[in-house]
Specification:
The structure is a single chain. This protein is α+β, with helices and mostly antiparallel strands. The chain has a domain of 166 residues: Sandwich (Immunoglobulin-like), CATH 2.60.40. The protein has six helices and 14 strands. The strands form three sheets. The chain has a seven-stranded mixed β-sheet with strand order 5-6-2-1-10-13-12, with helices on one face. Strand 5 and strand 6 form a beta hairpin. Helix 1 packs antiparallel against helix 2, helix 1 packs parallel to helix 3 and helix 1 runs antiparallel to helix 6. The N and C termini lie far apart (65 Å). The relative contact order is 0.21.
Length: 299
């Protein structure tokens, strides 16, 4: 039955995370925002497809029969009284003692496992197909499918280079320029469900622009790792399996602007740069606040 629980947890986790699958690894990112609304955004470094390769490998490990321990339960001998010939009452419980399983017990275990596998096979196939559909047809266990996904990124504007490094990890070079006459979000991927947002640039009616980078905060509720920690599927999985682990988040996010900085949550505030004021956030596993700034553009 452990096998069913593990597979169910894996599928439930993947389906629930279908809207928030990507997370930064080691990176350098920058946003240059001019007061006339022109902007340039860059992201260079790692992006991890959170836990899918690890979950797939975990699923394969659980596909083989594993013997469960067998026990005998022995009651301890009653304690002797100091008075000769007398015995004290003993209220201790029987203690389990592990022993090798008999051939009959192993055969019964294997039969139970095979029956459970047979009953769950159709359901697992349906669930896995639903998972692929939720991921835009991506099969995280198929290298060809992952390479097709990388090719899809390369066709999109801004993705200058995309290299798959294995274990769900991509090395990317992204750069795009535009005007903030509408909102900008990174990343947005063709045929892929809306992912968790690394950076968002939001234009307001009063001529200000709000910049948030929730993806650069490991503790953010919009970060897949933080969300997964509170999910029942992962909680169930972690009781019998190790937590799937992605790359450690570490990098910098820099905002440069010649607009008026109205608010920000950097440690050191704005510093003068060659093209305007500069804000810098250092991002790592100890980061507790989402990088945020508010900039006033020219009227």
């Amino acid at each position: 039955m452990k096998r069913i629980g593990a597979v169910g947890a894996i599928v439930a986790l993947a389906l629930t995370l279908s809207a928030c699958l990507l997370t930064p690894g080691r990176f350098v990112s920058a946003l240059d925002l001019r007061k006339d609304g022109q902007f340039t955004f860059t992201y260079k470094g790692e992006i991890s497809m959170f836990g899918l390769a690890q979950l797939a490998a975990m699923d394969k490990r659980n596909s083989e029969f594993k013997e469960s321990p067998c026990y005998d339960y022995e009651s301890p001998a009653p304690a002797k009284s100091k008075k000769k010939g007398a015995e004290e009452e003993d209220d201790t419980f029987a203690e389990p003692k592990e022993r090798p399983c008999t051939a009959e017990e192993l055969a019964e275990q294997k039969l139970d496992w095979e029956e459970a596998r047979k009953e769950s096979a159709a359901r697992e196939k349906k669930d896995l197909e639903e998972m692929k559909a939720a991921l835009g047809g991506l099969d995280p266990t198929d290298p060809k499918s992952i390479e097709e996904f990388a090719g899809r990124l390369r066709r999109q504007a801004g993705w200058k280079a995309v290299t798959y490094k294995g274990d769900g990890l991509f090395d990317v070079d992204y750069a795009i320029a535009g005007k903030v006459d509408h909102d900008f979000i990174f990343p947005i991927i063709e045929k892929f469900p809306t992912t968790n947002t690394f950076v968002q640039v939001l234009r307001r009616n009063d001529g200000t622009v709000r910049i948030d980078a929730p993806g650069f905060n490991p503790g953010s509720t919009t970060n897949p790792m933080a969300q997964a920690m509170g999910m029942g599927a992962l909680s169930t999985l972690s009781k019998s399996e190790k937590m799937p682990k992605g790359p450690e988040m570490e990098g910098t996010f820099t905002l440069t602007t010649n607009g008026q900085i109205l608010a920000n949550n950097t440690d050191e505030g704005a510093k003068p740069g060659t093209t305007g004021q500069m804000l810098e956030w250092k991002v790592n596993v100890r980061t507790t606040a989402t990088p945020t700034a508010l900039v006033k553009l020219a009227n």
